[in-house]
UniProtKB/TrEMBL annotation:
One of its GO terms (cellular component) is cytosol. This is Translation initiation factor IF-2. Residues 81-229 are annotated as: G-domain. One of its GO terms (molecular function) is GTPase activity. GTP binds at residues 87-94, 133-137, 187-190. The gene is infB. Residues 78-245 form the Tr-type G domain. Keywords: Cytoplasm, GTP-binding, Initiation factor, Nucleotide-binding, Protein biosynthesis. One of the essential components for the initiation of protein synthesis. Protects formylmethionyl-tRNA from spontaneous hydrolysis and promotes its binding to the 30S ribosomal subunits. Also involved in the hydrolysis of GTP during the formation of the 70S ribosomal complex. The chain holds residues 423 to 792 of 1000 of the full protein. Signal peptide: none annotated. It is found in: Cytoplasm. Its main location: cytoplasm.
């Protein structure tokens, strides 16, 4: 079976080995710091620390089955889907995002100055959809490999005049690897001389078959340029999201993923964050990857100031002491001390990983084999 030493587990949980040994004894497990405990025991202990050192467990949490139980016992609420738009170069990803955003701004959010923060949400008939600005396939995989899978649905953009191209195929395989359902947006249908049958056939050859053709993938014909089909696209996303029954606990400390971050001359480090679970509040102590801080101000994608934000909300935050990396997980912690502990632990993990040492290796093993 999979095993982990008590010392490694203690480090991963950011607790003293002695404390962990006591806890194990209470569970009837006698083990010294260098001895192994089995996976079940590690999971049990990890779940006990969930709220105390939650942030340490985020990467573990995502995979450990105990997390599910913990969140299920917390109050679950429906949450908006988080959508990533992918596709070949120039097939119109940005145009579709812009058209969706503009349509909304024009339709009722006039007065709010739309600023580009790399993620935003669109509302239709009172239902929200969160979009991640196309992060590029590498960023998507990098985020995934760090456990920060933030996408529920992929919109695959395929230009009707160009069909399936290398990055289309790549996007399909990324989405499939991630187990994320695909909605196809056949874009540029305003163009003359397009052959939709050809596009459908090419996609079928790659395992993506439209519902119209008896498959199970929603295809939506759009023109970002002319603004046609965009409502249908949102509808398709909402329909898919109903099937997925997406929920999240709101009444727990926030956890999310850094979508992008930069240093602003006036405001210092600024990070765009997609909240996945729980609630993030102004004043919260956080750790983003290995960077610590306290949320000083938070705004939504329209530049509106927020005091708190729940699951599937994209926000921009200031208050970190340094610029984190895209794909870093960000977590609310109890205080500055805990933030530093978590950051130190992560740095240690990264260093161990880089030098191929055992603690990281065993962590990896533990994670990948579950
Ligand atoms: P990269 O970010 O470079 O990968 O490209 P992209 O997929 O974001 O494509 P982008 O939105 O930049 O569009 C590429 C080109 O296609 C631009 O010149 C757009 O004006 C054009 N375009 C996008 N959508 C449509 C459409 O619906 N119809 C037509 N005719 N042109 C479009
Ligand atoms: Mg683009």
């Amino acid at each position: 079976g999979h095993e982990i030493t008590v010392g490694d587990l203690a480090r991963q949980l950011s607790v003293k080995a002695g404390e962990l040994i006591k806890k194990l004894m209470a569970e009837g497990v006698m083990a010294t710091i260098n001895q192994n405990v089995d996976f079940e025991t590690a999971t049990l202990i990890a779940s006990e620390y969930k709220y105390e050192v939650k942030s340490n467990l985020v990467s573990l949490d995502d995979i450990l089955s105990s997390k599910k139980d913990a969140y299920e016992s917390a109050d679950q609420q429906e949450r908006p889907p988080i959508v990533t738009i992918m596709g070949h170069v120039d097939h119109g990803k940005t145009s579709i995002l812009d058209a969706l955003r503009k349509a909304k701004v024009a339709a009722g959010e006039a007065g709010g100055i739309t600023q580009h923060i790399g993620a935003y949400s669109v509302e239709k008939d009172g239902r929200k959809v969160a979009f991640l600005d196309t992060p590029g396939h590498e960023a998507f995989s990098a985020m995934r490999s760090r456990g920060a899978q933030v996408t529920d649905i992929v919109i695959l953009v395929v230009a009707a005049d160009d069909g399936v191209m290398p990055q289309t195929v790549e996007a399909i395989s990324h989405a499939k690897d991630a187990g994320v359902p695909i909605i196809v947006a056949v874009n540029k249908i305003d163009k003359p001389n397009i052959n939709l049958d050809r596009v459908y056939t090419e996609l079928t050859e790659h395992g993506i078959q439209s519902e119209e053709w008896g498959g199970d993938t929603q295809f939506v014909k759009v023109s970002a340029l002319q603004g046609t089909g965009l409502d249908d696209l949102i509808e398709a996303v909402l329909l898919q999201s109903e099937i997925l029954e997406l929920t999240a606990a709101t009444d727990v400390p926030g956890t999310g993923a850094v979508v992008e971050a930069h240093l602003d001359k006036g405001r210092g480090p600024v990070a765009t964050v997609m909240i996945r679970e729980g609630t993030l509040r102004v004043g919260d102590h956080v750790v983003a990857g290995t960077k610590v801080g306290r949320v000083r101000a938070m705004t939504n994608h329209l530049g509106k100031r927020l005091k708190s934000a729940g699951p599937s909300t994209p926000v921009e935050i200031v208050g970190l002491s340094e610029v984190p990396m895209a794909g870093d997980t960000i977590d609310v912690v109890e205080g500055e001390r805990q933030a530093r502990e978590v950051a130190a632990w992560r740095e240690e993990q990264a260093a161990a990983m880089a030098s191929g040492k055992s603690s990281a290796a065993s962590l990896e093993e533990l994670l990948s084999k579950v």
